[in-house]
Amino acid sequence: MRKATSNVLHSVTQRHWPLKIRTAKYSTPPLSKDTYKIKRGNFASLTDKDINVFEGIVGKTRMLTDVSDVEAYNVDWLHSVRGSSQCVLKPKTTEEVSAILKHCNERRLAVCPQGGNTGLAGGSNPVFDEVVISTSLMNKIISFDSLSGVLTCQAGCVLEQLESYLLEQGFLMPLDLGAKGSCQIGGNVSTNAGGLRLVRYGSLHGTVLGIEAVLANGEVINCLNKMKKDNTGYHLKHLFIGSEGTLGLVTQVAIHCPVSPKSLNVAFLGLDSYEKVLEALKSSKKDLGEILSSCELMDRTSIQAVEENLKLRVPIKDCPFYMLIETSGSNSDHDEEKLSQFLENALEKNIIVDGIQASEPSRIKQLFEVRERMAEALLLDGFLYTYDVSLKPQDFYSIVPTTREHLKNVPGVMRVTGFGHFEFVGIT
């Protein structure tokens, strides 16, 4: 058996916050500099002179200093952490980023790079009074080569907008996330986001061909290679993929994009044990082979949150576990036949207890909505803690019952759930 790894987004929800979470009126305050129990580094504090320098770089309209304007950049999507930044800068070019970082480096001002601020771990938010550098206005598509499939764009391009642009060209982003409507490609690269399509297209270490980044001292590093094969020298791009801004701020990305599939099919499965989930995983790899493009796991507790809080309905009977499997290929008749045969085999062997197959775009969107809006549903319970961990498929779900046991006597805990991507390398 070859080594295989998977991600499970394991969450704990508590009824501590009201359902209207966006009001920022919480009964339990988010983690902040006062509750982190860590010491601020030996950094300088922002002065009026710094503000004047920044104004000279980005102008008044692209600099936020009002408390109410800065609020959204200090707090994460879950409202679980809060920084105390007093200044948000919105550069449009690499040169402006370079000038900002050069000044901050000379003045020893701490900075916090921020993309779409959609992360669930607080990594995009300041801890203390860091200067936030938002890439939201660095949103230009620089070029696209339809022969090689290489897209080059600025870091602030929203993932869904890139997807829409590529679909018009007959291509597809190799990355797909539930937060694609607001997450940015620079943040995706900086966090090495996996997403729903990793099974088919691999990680960003394989699809990102090059990056441009600015170091802390303002120096621009140009690794914006656009060749799929490059055997020359060091591949410094890999250091920045997943570095979360600790080595530099990513400003441009070159990414290899596959041709958009002509045929998409989805199966939503119900299973009565985790052992059956592993059997279904093996069977999907064997029966679907080259057209398998996505494989997702959800437990019953996760589905209950979606049904209760978002009023979405799962179109199959109640089961302890669910799987969402997607195939993508070039021949609809061939792909539908393979998926149908997979479902028949799984039913005959008692691997699954129920299942539904869909090929219509609207129906596929409805089924994926159940999975993609899971974090949103859990957040509506009140307070949400999430942990994104990578484990072998055999151990994928074990963390959930273990956590339930640890928290069974803790007041206020409502649900402990498990859901996520099956990102296996191979399993036999």
Q: By helix and strand content, what is the structural category?
A: alpha+beta
CATH-level-2 architecture of the largest domain: 2-Layer Sandwich
**Most strands sheet:** 7 strands, antiparallel
Can you count the helices? 14
- Alpha carbon gyration radius: 23 Å
Q: How many β-strand stretches?
A: 16
CATH class term of the largest domain: Alpha Beta
**CATH topology term of the largest domain:** Alpha-Beta Plaits
Percent range of helical residues: 25-40%
State the end-to-end distance. Answer: 6 Å
Proportion of residues in β-strands: 15-25%
Written account of the structure:
With 428 residues, this protein is α+β, with helices and mostly antiparallel strands. It has three domains: 32-134, Uridine Diphospho-n-acetylenolpyruvylglucosamine Reductase, domain 2 (2-Layer Sandwich), CATH 3.30.43.10; 141-256, Uridine Diphospho-n-acetylenolpyruvylglucosamine Reductase, domain 3; 263-427, Alpha-Beta Plaits (2-Layer Sandwich). Helices cover 31% and strands 23% of the residues. The protein contains 14 helices and 16 strands. The strands form three sheets. It has a seven-stranded antiparallel sheet, sandwiched between helices. A five-stranded antiparallel sheet has the order 6-7-10-8-9. Helix 1 (48-58) runs antiparallel to helix 3 (94-107) and helix 9 (274-288) packs antiparallel against helix 11 (332-348). It is globular. Residues 81-260 form the FAD-binding PCMH-type domain. It comes from Thrips palmi (Melon thrips). It is found in: Peroxisome. Keywords: FAD, Flavoprotein, Oxidoreductase, Peroxisome. InterPro entries: FAD-bd_oxidored_4_C, FAD-bd_PCMH, FAD-bd_PCMH-like_sf, FAD-bd_PCMH_sub1, FAD-bd_PCMH_sub2, FAD-linked_Oxase-like_C, FAD-oxidored/transferase_4, Oxid_FAD_bind_N.
